[in-house]
């Protein structure tokens, strides 16, 4: 089906005699209309007709165009455009960058277009010609899998492009060299499993002898599947694609974005500068490898140059020196689609061994995370718990650990491959060992079985017998039949004790009244002091915001604009991990809850050192110390 034909402008033929026009049409038809316009010899014939009759070549081409549509319903300009696209595609695949540039320049002049006009038309044609096939969820799962594939479990996803930026001297290259060496050797990186495979280092930022020395320090040998391409430039993208088509590669390091683009005439601030990044992202997606591109930071701590670089990749990490004396490095995850959650992660750097040791999330320096993580691991490995999936909420209640801490440590255990997780609805279930085949798929976990105050793992409240052979997972619930779960969509699942005759609405009202009546340092308990859930945030508690907490401008003490990211100076809500380090550290200090706002979904806290008031989502804070509670 030919698109609607738009007749060309006919100014040039207005002076032609009718007879002359007929003669031109006759000669074109006798030479074979389609052939005349489709090949170089035919073009030469049209030019010869024009010269012999003293008519501009453009006029003869216009006559041929109109004649083709009238006689054959063919738009010859469309055929010419298709031919141009085909020629550009072939030229783009040439390995010699200089010859490629020469051919493209010649082709654009042949079509009487500028180079940018021709390439713009070509790029839009590729988008138009791309096949868009909608998929059902089952087709999507079959084609791409259901779960995220990892190159380094929990840190570096497979099939994506990552941008790692930082100022000079932060050891960006050394950090990724260590990751590359672990992948090539198949050894865990900082305790996290890797998917072993070939590694490519596209190095254009340092001399080859420096690269050799650094990799030798990491004990890389010729037997390891690691290859270096010194002096690589983005113009060699066709060779890279050809290599990936023949060799399965797990990890590609590009060092650096600036050095590999040194031959371009495009400004770093232009959107077009991000085109090679889009090409790399396409290669990563099609070949299932992880591509890490090193870049430099600007004065604000963001990736330098056009914002299109940030938008063209799946992950953006910023690496900085947090302590010059100790050499501590800080990775700030600014953007993620499938990897580790945004936050700040600490690493100790040893320059003598070029090694980095993960120390945990920034702000958790005083927590006993290692022993708590081991406590969770040992509990899941007990005989009665192996092969049984548990929600994070279940583990929090069983082990009397803050729910946010449990979620964080379960992620670390999963990322290290120590525990497994399955998804049920919107939540994850964690377990050690394989689930038995006879295990009931409809087993009710914590939130299911507590929705009804009379249902306890297939038995009624107070029934000493256990049906289906399963014991209650939550000791508090098993021992106290007067407990129920009040669901709060914005505050996860919180246990509240109340009289069984009391309605949920009445209980909620009573709790709000209690908050208003009591002084902040002596809060009244709700019905039963012995069974108050320590995870319910109340006025007077001392809390610490999470590293990924979002600060709300309304109700908070004003923050100096120098501490705010340029793009969010007027925003109403701002993630604290995007603020300056001084303000980030202050907001992460212990603060006392002075008010519960809204529908119990926000909390106003006061810093115990500076007196600063800040408003956060209630899910974004962890309880550091509970207020003194006395029965009225």
From TrEMBL:
What's the superkingdom here?
Bacteria
Instruction: Write the record's keywords in alphabetical order, separated by commas.
Output: DNA-binding, Transcription, Transcription regulation
Name recorded for this polypeptide = AAA family ATPase
Q: Which family does it belong to?
A: Belongs to the BlaI transcriptional regulatory family.
Cite the SUPFAM superfamilies for this sequence. P-loop containing nucleoside triphosphate hydrolases (SSF52540), Winged helix' DNA-binding domain (SSF46785)
Q: List this protein's GO terms for biological process.
A: negative regulation of DNA-templated transcription
Membrane-crossing residue ranges in chain numbering: none
One of the entry's Gene Ontology molecular-function terms is: DNA binding
**What is a single Pfam family found in this protein's UniProt entry?**
AAA_25
Would the keyword DNA-binding be found if you checked this record's keyword annotation? yes
